[in-house]
Structure formats: C-alpha cells, structure tokens
Specification:
Pfam families: Thioredox_DsbH
Protein name: Spermatogenesis-associated protein 20-like TRX domain-containing protein
Domain Spermatogenesis-associated protein 20-like TRX: 56-135
Helix content: 55-70%
Largest sheet: 3 strands, parallel
CATH class of the largest domain: Alpha Beta
Number of strands: 3
Length: 145
C-alpha cells in the first residue's frame, strides 16, 4: 500500500521534483529497461533451429523453455537423468548442478557472466558433469494446455 501511495504522490509532483523523489526512493529505476532488453535476448535465444550456433549441447532436445535457453552454451549441459550420473561415475568427477527457471533474473545474469564464458565452460566440462534443472518444469505443462 505504501508503494502505491508513493507512486501517486510522485506523479502529482512537478516533473523535476517527481524525478528527484523517484531517484532517491527507487535508485534502480533503469532496471526495468535492462530487464526488457534481457527479455528480448531470452526470446531471441529461442529462435528457430535454422540459425547456426557455435555450440549445441544435450539441452537442445529438451522441451523446457529454461533448458532450451541454455542449449547453446559452451558448457556441456546434461538434463537431469541417468546418463549424466553414469557419465560422472565413469569419469570419476563430481556433479555441477544448476537449478533455475526461465523468468529468474539472476539465472540469466549467471548465464551471461559464467555459462557463456568459454574459459569457465572449459573448466566445468573438464572437472564436472554439469546438470541443468528447470525449477519450474510445471510451467511447460501449464503453457501447453
């Protein structure tokens, strides 16, 4: 309730006073713009398979929107399943487990800063079997009805 009244109050101020109020009250006012741009980037990651990609991993055959967003990372992602665990046992390496969902802001930040980095991917691919899990796999079912 306080947030709504603050916004109403700010809109009733003159433009310069309102902007100053919003700057001190809401210091991250450009966050919405960044998120919009990141959302466009996410939608572009779901482009058709006709586009050429430098990397394609096992997530390319999954149905989850979140897993598909990571299908072209240089990290050799596995979906949750026996194949990943058998490979980890065979190689004698631990599991690197990453859990997220398609609308998670920090999941996208992590992807941009780490999972798209070729040096990080090289270390993950060498020292771990990396598994990506969609925390909200139910969203896929909800959208399909």
């Amino acid at each position: 309730m306080a947030l709504n009244s603050s916004l109403i109050f700010a809109s009733s101020l003159s433009s310069s006073a309102g902007a100053a109020f919003l700057r001190c009250r809401f210091p991250l006012r450009f966050t919405a713009r960044r998120r919009t741009l990141q959302s466009l980037r996410v939608f572009s990651m779901a482009e058709s398979s006709r586009a050429s990609h430098r990397y394609t991993n096992r997530l390319a055959s999954e149905h989850s929107p979140y897993l598909l967003q990571h299908a072209h990372n240089p990290v050799d992602w596995y979906p949750w399943g026996d194949e990943a665990f058998q490979n980890a046992r065979k190689k004698g390496v631990p599991i690197f487990l990453s859990i997220g969902y398609s609308t998670c802001h920090w999941c996208h930040v992590m992807e941009m800063e780490s999972f798209e980095n070729e040096e990080v991917a090289k270390m993950l691919n060498e020292w771990f079997v990396s598994i990506k899990v969609d925390e909200r796999s139910d969203q896929m079912l909800i959208r399909s009805t």
